[in-house]
Amino acid sequence: MFSLYKKELQSYFYSPFAYIISALFLLVFSMSFIQGISNMDSSIFKFSFSNIFYNNFFYFIFMIPLLTMRTFAEERKSHTETLWLSAPITIPQVVFAKFLAVATVFLLMMVLSLFFPLIAAVKGHVIVSSMICGYLGFFLWGLVCIAVGMMMSALTDNPIIAAVFGETAMIFLIFLDNFASTDLVASLPFLQKLLNWFSTEVHFSAFSQGLFSLSDLVFFISITLVVLVWTIIIIEKRRWSRG
Amino acid sequence: MVEIKNLTKYYGSNPAVQDISFTVGDHEVLGFLGPNGAGKSTTMNMITGCLPSTSGTVLVDGYDIAKDPLEVKRRIGYLPELPPVYTDMRVRDYLMFAAGLKGVPRDKREKQVKDAMERLHITDVQKRIIGNLSKGYRQRVGFAQALLGSPKFLILDEPTVGLDPKQVMEVRRLIKELAKDHTIIFSTHILAEVTAVCERVVIISQGRIRAVDTIENLENSIGGEKQLRLKIEGEITKVTDIINGVEGVTGISEVEYESDGVSSFTVSVKSEDVRKPMMAALIAEDCMVLEVTAVHANLEDVFVRLTAPSRADALADLNRELTAAREAEKAADAESGKEADD
Questions:
Q1: Is residue B303 part of a domain?
Q2: How close are the terminal C-alpha atoms of chain A, in Å?
Q3: Is there a contact between B85 and A80 if contact means CB atoms under 8 Å apart?
Q4: Least CA distance to B12: which residue of chain A?
Q5: Which residues pair with B263 in a beta bridge?
Q6: Based on the domain organization, do B250 and B327 belong to the same domain?
Q7: Cα separation of B163 and B51, whole Å?
Q8: Distance (Å, rounded) from C-alpha A26 to C-alpha A183?
Q9: From residue B166, how far is each of A56, B152, B202 by CA, in Å?
Q10: Distance CA A109, CA A21 (A)
Q11: ipTM beyond 0.90?
């Protein structure tokens, strides 16, 4: 399984893929950063990273699917999946190895973004605890996005379609609470409760404001696991219905 | 030993493979022969565990593919029809990765990869990116991948497709060489390949097994009558008389005039021993024999006969229709007879 993880990770750096996406991520991050600084009120000289995180939360919809779109769709297209289907390795292992590889790339991107708090620290004071909490929320939300993106990639053999599906699914996840507060859903209290329970935004905003709660942590991890299990089921199912 | 028992695969309601059973003994080379779309790849995918079967099982060394897939997969090296190579990787990195995936211990990977590359003559391209290699080289990289982890069984799906004649020869030689310490099942639709490499063949068509036997037996089963083709200089009538006069000749099936008094004769004989007395008789009458060849009923005939069930089916249908028509006629006759009696 480690070999697969290593190979997946390397494949992001063999091509300019990981570099370009990291650069895009940093660009978006720096724009939020600049915006944060320029919006500073001259009387308080203070801005929060939570805002930056909150902004980036939305940009993720477009970046994470780019990372995950090739995971399974590409393998299916180029018929390389027979390699791991015929190797002594189980499908859960494959899914997990690929997930870890994408998560590592994502983690590297986050490490690069530490650049901004460092700059801020040089000229001012950074509240470390709140920032760590923000980063944690950010990372957990990223894991959910990665799992969803991988699931969409397992559904099709076209990476572009996988990316579009992934974006759609993430938009749906993010705006779940907006959807839940519409009059239609509000008239059905049970449905509203259910949708609110699954709404990621509530949980994320707590993190980005520096509030750490165990229930939020469990929420993100369990969503990630559920989606990964779905991915495994989808791949198994596809193996049964088509060679 | 690989035992395939009543293997069946349906895609939706379309049967791809139906009720296939055969066994492959240790250190055997088995050719899996069939026209395109016969179900060869589907069967191979099921043997290697890439595709679950609708019903039936595959036992590899007593392990069931459905119950112990990992044990089975550890014993099998698989080269699919399209080599499963990552085009963005370098040859050596790819093979090291494949070795890891197959669970080769870290300290043995280096050596196994080196051996596999030497066997397939790809050592000199080991630093190149697979996407930049030609089809032949990619095929060989895929083949090298199948050898990693020293599996006892090799399943090769059309290993020579897309290679140039020299490479085809090389792959055939390699299969023969590998047969010394591996059991090999390989599929092909090229007949010459089977005759060149295998001892036993399974012929499959439209998802069903048509024959499982040694090549020799298959040829004999259809052969029966032996034929000689002779090129002789001399008058046709005279030569025909002489040949017909030789004991053991059952007839001349074809005479073809070629040039300058040279004709070629296709002669049916009881056994090939007839050659000597026939030669003697011809030379005694001053007829120059320029060429003698034995015509064998070959695997090609067997193949064509076995894989063309549509014609046989059509004939059977026709017969059935004819009998039905005849019976109807009889019944009609009988009735008209009754009417006449009344």
A1: no
A2: 23
A3: yes
A4: A241
A5: B232, B257
A6: no
A7: 27
A8: 39
A9: 58, 27, 26
A10: 9
A11: no
Which residues, 6+ apart, have CB-to-CB distance to B90 below 8 Å?
B126, B127, B128, B129, B130
Q: Greatest CA span in chain A, whole angstroms?
A: 66
Residue B198 has pLDDT above 60, yes or no: yes
Structure tokens at A34: 């600049």
Which ranges of A69-127 does DSSP label H, i.e. alpha helix?
A: 70-77, 81-85, 91-113, 115-123
Separation in Å, CA of B49 to nearest CA in chain A: 6
* Chain B closest-CA separation from residue A29 CA (Å): 30
Gyration radius of chain A's alpha carbons: 19
User: Model's pTM, two decimal places?
Assistant: 0.79
Q: Report how far residue B264's alpha carbon sits from residue A228's, in angstroms, rounded to the nearest whole number.
A: 73
Are B93 and B132 contained in the same domain? yes
The verdict on B206 and B245 lying in the same domain is no
- Is the predicted pLDDT of residue B267 greater than 70, yes or no? yes
CA dist., res. A114 & res. A119, Å (int): 9
Q: Phi first, then psi: what are they for A229, rounded to 5°? A: -65, -40
What are the backbone dihedrals phi and psi of residue A215, each rounded to the nearest 5 degrees, phi first?
-65, -35
User: Is residue B262 located within the same domain as residue B215?
Assistant: no
pLDDT at A243: 47
Contact A150, A71 (CB under 8 A): yes
Reported in sequence order, the residue ranges of B89-217 that DSSP labels E, i.e. its strands, are 153-157, 183-188, 200-205, 208-214
**B11/A84 touch (CB, cutoff 8 Å), yes or no:** no
Mark out chain B residues that contact chain A at CB-CB < 8 A. 11, 41-42, 45, 48-52, 69-71, 73-74, 76, 78, 80, 82, 84-89, 93, 97-103, 145
Quote the domain boundaries for residue B318. Answer: 309-341
Task: Give me the DSSP letters along B191-203.
Answer: HHHHHHH-SEEEE
How many residues comprise chain B?
A: 342
Query: Can you read off the two tokens belonging to residue A220?
Result: 């993100």
Structural domain spans, chain A: 2-37+48-241
Average pLDDT over residues B67-96: 91
Determine the residue of chain A that is closest to B68 in CA distance.
Answer: A88
Residue of B nearest to A74 (CA): B86
CB pairs under 8 A between A and B: 82
What the block records as the tokens of A61 is 């919809």
**Residues B193, B232 within the same domain:** no
As a whole number, mean pLDDT of residues B137-153 equals: 91
The residues, any chain, with a CB within 8 Å of residue A231's CB and separated by 6 or more, are A72, A95, A147, A150, A151, A154
For tokens 């240790």, what's the residue?
A: B26
